[in-house]
Amino acid sequence: MEEELLLDLRKRKRMLSNRESARRSRMRKQQHSENLVSQAAQLREANRRISAQVKMIAERCGRVEAENRVIRTEAMELAERLGSVSSLLRLMGAVEISDPILNPWQLPFPAPPITASADVFQ
Q: Boundaries of each BZIP domain copy (predicted)?
């Protein structure tokens, strides 16, 4: 009889211990689930911000590309005009105009020589 009581007591302790362990496990699982929901919300917000930034940058890039196309077209038109004017001047016997845009290191006039005296460094 005493053995039965001892076994019954051990069985109850084990059941209580198992219940408490299961309760802690459910609490950990619940906490983990709440953390995942919170993390998902944070990631959605970060994704929304990044998407807005990407959209803004793409729009800016489109505007810059359009502006570059306009500038390139204007540069080509101006180069054609300069070529036409140069051809007319050549036909008229005038001095040829150099194109500083196409050859920026070539000056349209001769550079004067640089002179220095010995007393400059004293």
A: 8-71
109-119 pLDDT, tens digit per residue, is 566 665 655 56
Q: Which residues contact 44 (CB under 8 A, 6 or more apart)?
A: none
Angle in degrees, CA 82, 85, 91, rounded to 5? 140
CA gap 79, 85 in Å, rounded: 10
Alpha-carbon span 83 to 102, nearest angstrom: 11
Average pLDDT per consecutive 10 residues, the chain (122 residues; last block may be shorter): 85 95 97 98 98 98 96 94 87 66 57 58 51
**25: helix, coil or strand?**
helix
Sign of CA dihedral 48, 53, 54, 56: positive
Question: 23 to each of 12, 16, 18, 34, how far by Cα in Å?
Answer: 16, 10, 8, 16
